[in-house]
Amino acid sequence: MIKVEFLGPIKKEAVEVDMESLAALKEYFKDDEDLQDWLKICAVSVNDKIVCSLDVPLKDGDKVSLLPPVCGG
Amino acid sequence: MSLELYEGSLRVEDILSHWYQKYKDKNYGAFINFVGIVRDENGIDGLSFDIYEPILNEWFYLWQQKAQKEGAYLLMAHSKGDVLNHTSSYISAVLSPQRKVSLRLINEFVEDFKANAPIWKYDLIGGERVYAKDRSMAIKGSGLLYNKER
Fold first, then answer.
1. Strands A63-67 and A2-6, how do they pair?
2. CA angle, A40 then A32 then B146, to 5°
3. Shortest CA distance from A64: residue in chain B
4. What domains can be seen in chain B, in order of their start residue?
């Protein structure tokens, strides 16, 4: 299982799912209506490293995080 | 490391004084700092912040390495939670042997901070936190999990 957490202003509890890649997770999320507007603008990290490619394998215990647009300071 | 996170408004005088005392005898000739102050505008009572610390720590660590290649050293303090108008949520500073490196780095550092540091800002209005979406910047690679063909 991998854990997916939704950071900052996304008001959604973390979920645990059985996925082998980010590409599979993208497919999994396509039917989640409430999440679509966030998915358009969120960056993605795997085990706290920002990733820019779907070609990232996932293994049991990995953590995927969705990061909405930021504004520190 | 020198990344400091605090609950609520920053005690600016204490933090800057501590940094000055700590580094004044390390032979840096320049100490440039930037202090952000929350402005009273658009009817807000203040701002509020969420921070994702694991990625913030890594982002700051990479910047510290970059600065040290130029003989410089970075300092940063940021608030978590609520920060009322006319108080401060952010301080960054650069120490370097000469001023030109510090003056350039402080600008580059703050620009990248705004674009990539995993911190989310909310306006405090009537006791509610309202995500400052229009003032926020999407991190590089955003939209990766959005399926355009759904």
1. parallel
2. 25
3. B145
4. 3-127 (3.90.1170.40)
Dihedral angle over CA of B51, A11, A14, B149, nearest 10: -110
Is residue A13 domain-resident?
Answer: yes
Output the pLDDT for position B16.
Answer: 98
Model confidence pLDDT, tens digit, residues A38-73: 999 999 999 999 999 999 899 999 999 999 999 999
ipTM for the complex? 0.95
Chain-chain contact of B137 with A70 (C-beta, under 8 angstroms): yes
Query: Vertex B68, ends B66 and B69: CA angle to 5°?
Result: 70
A33 in a structural domain = yes
Pairing of strands A2-6, A15-17: antiparallel
The answer to whether residue A65 sits within a structural domain is no
The C-alpha atoms of residue A30 and residue A36 are separated, in whole angstroms, by 7
**Which member of B90, B136, B147 has the closest CB to residue A69?**
B136
- On whether residue A71 sits in a domain, the answer given is no
Residue from the list A9, A26, A41 with its beta carbon closest to the beta carbon of B147: A26
Predicted confidence (pLDDT) at residue B148 exceeds the cutoff of 90: no
Q: Using only the alpha carbons of chain A, give its radius of gyration.
A: 12
Spatial separation of the C-alpha atoms in residues B123 and B5, rounded to whole Å: 19
- Between CA A69 and CA B55 the distance in angstroms is 14
